[in-house]
Every structure is written in structure tokens, then in C-alpha cells.
Design a protein that fits this description.
Layout: H1 2-36, H2 40-116, E1 122-130, E2 138-141, E3 154-156, E4 161-168, E5 173-177, E6 184-189, E7 195-199, H3 202-208, E8 211-216, E9 228-231, E10 243-252, E11 259-265, E12 274-278
Antiparallel strand pairs: 1-2, 1-12, 2-5, 3-4, 3-12, 4-5, 6-7, 6-9, 7-8, 8-11, 9-10, 10-11
Helix pairs in contact: 1-2
Length: about 290
């Protein structure tokens, strides 16, 4: 049955091709008659051939438009790929410029604090490691005893006091930041000269980005929020007059004699990259109490 069906299909196809060939021949004949004949033949050819020619022209124009469309589409795709490549290159350049700008800004800040504490000899260092967590409570720098660094040297960053060197190797050093829970710094209020203690408080730092300030003996009630706090002259390991931060909250203690509160550090302890180590230490070596 399948063979019979296939043979019928082949015969039908042949017949269609024969009919199409005959029609083409007739159209050619009529076309010639239209161009060179006269009378009824010309009228017939005019009636039949002209619409066919118009239709063929329209079909040809249609396919020509489609071909031009796809050709233009290929051109647009090529141009789009080229433009995308240029966009990617420009994006990389912009990102590189942003990084360079950030590094330049950090260097400017280091230069500013270097000038602010120009009385001290300093060496710059990069932060190369930190303890686990989001805060630089203890961190490692890429300079050590080969660069003149020893234990108990003060470390400053863009805004002021960052910490103190607790260990110095030949080519690296470990720094304990002032926000660490074990850190205590003898300090003073710049405006009133009242002494106080600044203590690290990582829990408070994580919640409010502040640390603790305690035991401010403010007899005249002049110390207030916003006052600047610096290291005091009586600090055993921290050099004097290095900015620590600014008071963010304050209240009287239960004894109604001293005040305590919180302090916002000047240093950004979440994004430390470059620091300066002051190449000097206090002559005494006891911990701040």
C-alpha cells in the first residue's frame, strides 16, 4: 500500500511540474504577444500578463526588502557586539579609576594626618591580615623590626589613633586596635582638659559603631556630646594629643560626680587598609589602667 501511495505522489508531483511548465510557456508567449502583437492578443496579454508581472515585481521587492532587513540586522548585531565590547572596556576603565581614586583619597588622608602629627617620625604600612569578623580589632601590617618598628609603638590611620603594636617580627607586626575589648586608653577632653578612660567595646561597636568613655570628672558640667577626645599626657603607652574620637552620648554616673557614655572613633575600623606607625614609644612601659 505504501508503495502505491508513493507512486501516486510521484505522479502527482510530475503532473504539477508539467502544468507549471506549460503555464510558464504560455506566459512567455503571451508576454511576447503583449510586446509585439496587436488587436485581441494584445488585449488578452495586457489583461493577463500585466497583473502577473506586477505581482512578480511585488514578490521580488518583498524578498529584496526581507533580504535587506536581515542584512541590516546582521550589521546591527555586529555593531551591537562591537559597542558592547567598548562598553565592557569603558566599565573596566571606570572601575579601575574608582579604585585609583579611593587609593588616592586614602593616601591624601594619610598625608593629612602625617602633617597633623609632623613632630613624630613615622613609617607607612599596609594592613595584610585581620582576625575573623567584620572589625579590625587586631590586625597585621607588613612592616616590622627591619623597618624600625618595636612593641608599644602607636599606630594612626586616616582619622587618628588606630591602636598599638603588640608584637613586632622582622617583616610584620601585630596591632591591637582601640576598639578591642582588652584596650584601655588614658585620654582627655580637649575643651576642658578633664581626664577620662576610653575602653574598647566590640559589642557596642557592632551595634552603634561606638566604644565606651568613662570616669570623666566634670565638676563644672562643661563636657558635652560632640567634644573631641585625645590621648592624655599621663597615658603610659600612648603618646599625648593623638585624636581618638568624639563623644556621642553622655550621662552622670550613679555617684553623680563623674560622667560616662560612648565615643565614636575617628578611624574607620571596618575598612582599614593603610596606616602610619609612629617610630617612638613612651619611656615607661606599664599598661594603661
Amino acid at each position: 500500500m505504501n508503495k502505491k501511495k508513493n507512486s501516486k505522489i510521484k505522479l502527482t508531483s510530475k503532473r504539477v511540474l508539467i502544468v507549471l511548465a506549460i503555464i510558464c510557456g504560455v506566459l512567455i508567449f503571451l508576454s511576447v504577444g503583449y510586446n509585439f502583437g496587436a488587436g485581441p492578443i494584445k488585449n488578452i496579454t495586457g489583461f493577463v500578463v500585466v497583473p502577473v508581472e506586477n505581482a512578480m515585481v511585488k514578490v521580488a521587492n518583498f524578498f529584496e526588502d526581507k533580504f535587506s532587513y536581515f542584512q541590516d540586522l546582521d550589521t546591527l548585531n555586529d555593531e551591537n557586539r562591537e559597542l558592547q565590547s567598548q562598553v565592557n572596556e569603558l566599565t573596566e576603565e571606570i572601575n579601575s579609576l574608582k579604585v585609583d581614586q579611593a587609593e588616592l583619597e586614602e593616601l591624601r588622608q594619610l598625608l593629612a594626618i602625617d602633617k597633623e602629627y609632623s613632630d613624630y617620625e613615622k613609617v607607612s604600612a599596609s594592613v595584610v591580615a585581620m582576625d575573623s569578623g567584620n572589625w579590625f580589632t587586631t590586625f597585621t601590617i607588613d612592616k616590622g623590626t627591619d623597618d624600625g618598628i618595636t612593641e608599644d609603638m602607636n599606630v594612626i590611620a586616616d582619622g587618628g589613633l588606630a591602636g598599638i603594636v603588640t608584637y613586632a617580627g622582622k617583616t610584620f607586626s601585630t596591632v591591637r586596635a582601640i576598639i578591642d575589648d582588652t584596650s584601655n586608653v588614658s585620654a582627655k577632653v580637649v575643651s576642658t582638659r578633664d581626664l577620662c578612660i576610653v575602653s574598647g567595646n566590640l559589642e557596642l561597636m557592632s551595634k552603634e559603631r561606638d566604644i565606651s568613655i568613662e570616669n570623666i570628672l566634670d565638676e563644672d558640667d562643661e563636657v558635652d556630646v560632640g567634644d573631641e577626645i585625645v590621648t592624655s599626657n599621663v597615658s603610659d603607652k600612648y603618646l599625648p594629643n593623638i585624636r581618638i574620637g568624639y563623644i556621642s552620648s553622655l550621662s552622670y554616673d550613679s555617684n553623680n560626680l563623674t560622667k560616662s557614655g560612648t565615643l565614636t572613633p575617628s578611624v574607620d575600623f571596618q575598612h582599614l587598609e593603610e596606616v602610619l606607625v609612629i617610630l617612638a614609644t613612651k619611656e615607661t612601659g606599664e599598661e594603661d589602667k
